[in-house]
């Protein structure tokens, strides 16, 4: 268990569109952030990414389940993201499990998220969602 990971998760869970300045205390200026849909380099670009993310949802919450340090300055967070988007799933809550791989010194300089992009987005788009769900059933 890592105190750094617990503190990071606690602070990250409090983020919203009104307090994105908290990103400055979590991430280094040269942050490299990657998820299945985006790749962002540098703290200013990360702030823009989060500002856009929070402007498109009416609710976004992260619940962290595990905090696993694997080496000095490296670890994983397991989480569930819950959000409402007015144009997805008829505005109902969408929940997506995921995992973050973090590397840090005093602040995080590498953040990579792993989650099912279909469960996050594609499955909730009319027509496309049915196709993605069908493909997942056929391949699973």
TrEMBL record:
<dbReference type="InterPro" id="IPR037401">
    <property type="entry name" value="SnoaL-like"/>
</dbReference>
<dbReference type="Pfam" id="PF12680">
    <property type="entry name" value="SnoaL_2"/>
</dbReference>
<dbReference type="InterPro" id="IPR032710">
    <property type="entry name" value="NTF2-like_dom_sf"/>
</dbReference>
<feature type="domain" description="SnoaL-like">
    <location>
        <begin position="11"/>
        <end position="106"/>
    </location>
</feature>
<protein>
    <submittedName>
        <fullName>Nuclear transport factor 2 family protein</fullName>
    </submittedName>
</protein>
């Amino acid at each position: 268990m890592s105190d750094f990971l617990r503190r990071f998760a606690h602070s990250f869970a409090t983020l919203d569109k009104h307090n994105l300045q908290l990103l400055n205390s979590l991430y280094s200026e040269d942050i490299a952030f990657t998820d299945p849909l985006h790749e962002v380099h540098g703290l200013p670009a990360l702030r823009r990414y989060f500002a856009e993310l929070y402007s498109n949802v009416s609710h976004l919450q992260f619940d962290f389940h595990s905090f696993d340090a694997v080496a000095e300055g490296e670890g994983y967070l397991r989480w569930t993201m819950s959000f409402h988007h007015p144009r997805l799933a008829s505005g109902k809550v969408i929940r997506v499990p995921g995992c973050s791989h973090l590397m840090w010194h005093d602040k995080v300089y590498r953040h990579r998220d792993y989650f099912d992009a279909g469960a996050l987005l594609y499955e909730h788009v009319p027509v496309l969602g049915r196709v993605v769900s069908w493909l997942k059933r056929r391949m699973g």
